[in-house]
Specification:
Elements lengths: L1 E14 L10 E11 L2 H6 L8 H14 L1 E2 L2 H16 L3 E9 L7 E9 L2
Parallel strand pairs: 1-3
Antiparallel strand pairs: 1-2, 2-4, 4-5
Helix pairs in contact: 2-3
């Protein structure tokens, strides 16, 4: 199975468990990999048969715009569900980083893998 990826996608959203975090937007950085059979798209040079990473990225931005979660775990789970459902993606690996959440760390977050290869 082929893989399509999006690296370093930054989105602003309301995320966090502390009261002060509920009133601000914070940056999350996403690295994603998707299982996708690229052969049909490549055979006819046909974007409609490809996993359009521009459309996927736009959907992630739209999701983040309205999301209001306390946990990065919840953000990651719900986003994976949306992407797999709306784009018929059989497998996704998502790494979500919340920069600045821990002063001594470059970032903290979660990695999840859902679906089947």
């Amino acid at each position: 199975m082929d893989r399509v990826f999006i690296e370093g996608l930054e989105v602003d959203t309301v995320i966090g468990a502390y009261d002060w975090e509920r009133d601000i937007r914070q940056c999350l950085r996403l690295d994603l990999r998707f299982a996708w059979d690229n052969r049909p798209a490549a055979a006819g040079d046909d974007l409609s048969l490809a996993l359009d990473y521009a459309s996927v990225s736009a959907r992630i931005q739209a999701f983040a715009e309205v999301a209001r979660f306390e946990l990065v775990e919840t953000f990651a789970e719900r986003l994976a569900e949306v992407l797999m459902s709306e784009f018929q993606i059989p497998w996704v690996h998502l790494k979500l980083t919340k920069p600045g959440a821990v002063a001594a760390a470059k970032g903290v977050g979660v990695e999840i893998e859902r679906g089947c290869l």
